[in-house]
Specification:
By secondary structure, this protein is mainly alpha-helical. Helix content is 55%, strand content 4%. The radius of gyration is 22 Å and the shape is elongated.
Length: 288
């Protein structure tokens, strides 16, 4: 991908900074915006668009057609359109442009698939898989119990610090997307194994570089996303589960099982930290 002209790169950087400061977007979301918009701005340069105020809907449609011709999925096109809409809305509000060329562009209609969930038996097998006789195995057991008991995102799990883990009250303070904070119950098994992890395993893992993060790796550093994925894949293999299981699978299972047990959609929305209840409603379609 060719380098952007300095003026375009400067405008893109200002937009990303505004999104980070004003909306509290995660680094992953910002990276997706950067990739999408760098590709888009490169297309505008190739189309000989002189300034951003000269962009018209035909230029936007030409870019989207390029993505389509390269075999991009409808979900990728929809994400790119979302990036373009937010970018051009920002340009309009900042007075950089005088019109929004994306306003009339519609996202492709996507069929929202039901999330992949585990059965209650599969969850039980997965949670029982780690070898709790070792510090890392006890850590994995504590993590899995907490993921299923509280419906955490993997980013929330690895960002969890000791003051947020309130074991005596069985509650967990979570700082989620948009820097929003919520409080969720942990469940008795999650409390039990996290107490054991903090008493036995974590002290054995702590090193000179350790911070306040709850879960540590063998070197005493905070866990990465891939480390959590690896722990879950290892547990799934030990449990004999021949499925593609991720941290989000446990989050999906947490939500689906609560709804199947009669918990209201609004409460599940609050526990998951969804800003919009329509995001939670997808779990209501899962066949119990």
């Amino acid at each position: 991908m060719a380098l952007l002209p300095v003026s375009l790169q400067h405008t893109l950087n200002r937009f990303l900074t505004a999104m980070e400061q004003d909306r509290g977007l995660t680094s992953n979301t910002l990276d997706a915006y950067r990739r999408d918009l760098t590709r888009y701005l490169s297309s505008l340069v190739q189309q000989d668009v002189a300034t951003l105020d000269d962009v018209r809907s035909r230029h936007v449609l030409s870019f989207l057609q390029q993505l389509h011709d390269r075999g991009r999925q409808p979900s990728t096109l929809a994400r790119n359109i979302t990036s373009l809409k937010r970018f051009h809305r920002y340009l309009l509000l900042q007075g950089i442009t005088s019109l929004d060329p994306v306003a009339e562009v519609e996202s492709p209609r996507l069929q929202r698939r039901s999330p992949a969930c585990l059965s209650a038996l599969e969850v039980e097998l997965l949670l029982d898989a780690p070898d709790t006789s070792s510090p890392l195995g006890l850590r994995d057991k504590a993590m899995l119990e907490l993921l299923y008991a509280s419906g955490l995102r993997v980013s929330e799990l690895i960002g969890l610090t000791l003051p947020y883990l309130q074991l005596d009250s069985g509650l967990l303070r979570v700082r989620g997307r948009g820097n929003r904070e919520r409080v969720v119950p942990m469940g008795s098994q999650a409390v039990k194994y996290n107490k054991a992890y903090l008493d036995i395993a974590r002290p054995a893992l702590v090193g000179p570089e350790s911070g306040a993060e709850v879960y540590l790796n063998a070197r005493g550093s905070s866990l990465s996303r891939m480390a959590v994925w690896k722990a879950i894949r290892t547990a799934a293999s030990r449990a004999g589960l021949e499925r593609d299981i991720s941290p989000h699978t446990l989050r999906h299972s947490f939500a689906a099982h609560l709804l199947q047990r009669g918990v209201s959609l609004q409460i599940v929305q609050e526990l998951l930290g969804h800003a919009d209840i329509s995001t939670t409603q997808v779990y209501a379609r899962i066949d119990s």
